[in-house]
């Protein structure tokens, strides 16, 4: 029962990780540049994401432009696009597989098949967490290096946006969920190996002797 509750807790973490992973991939605020002029009316906030760049004005207007050209983008943005999409796909596969392999569900067949499915789903979550952690770390490193570069003007410097923090948190949720799923299945299999079921063997000679004794009593 404790293992089933732990798997359910890991499944909830994985759901938060999947939703956060998808949100971080689609949000346009991976890096933010707040440019405030002398007048409050001219204050604007520029946001850049993986798929579009958006500008929000203090007057309430909001405009976005899509990044159509892939080859013109920097390498870290191209890599972030690929790895974040892979992270979303793997985490979605992990949700489907662990739904079959969890103890609290009636899918997946016997206990061995459910254990294998649960372990495979945990591996999907771990890979999804790694694929989500790599681009967010790389993207943050680029933002910090450009921010500390003295040759870049202040108006061109950016700070990490909410999408980066969402990606970090989602990757952590997926990694924790994957480790819980894998270790729960491993502990159950290891217990079966260490403590095999006891089998009682009765010598055939003893049974034959008892059978012969009983037959003599009826003669």
UniProtKB/TrEMBL annotation:
The subcellular localization recorded is:
Cell junction, Tight junction; Cell membrane
Which cellular components does GO assign to this protein? bicellular tight junction; plasma membrane
* Bilayer-spanning residue ranges: 84-105, 117-139, 162-186
Stated membrane topology is: Multi-pass membrane protein
Q: Name one Pfam family in it.
A: PMP22_Claudin
Record's InterPro entries?
Claudin (IPR006187), Claudin_CS (IPR017974), PMP22/EMP/MP20/Claudin (IPR004031)
Query: Which PROSITE patterns does this one have?
Result: CLAUDIN
Q: Where is the signal peptide?
A: 1-24
Protein name as annotated:
Claudin
Taxonomic placement: Eukaryota, Metazoa, Chordata, Craniata, Vertebrata
Gene designation: Cldn20
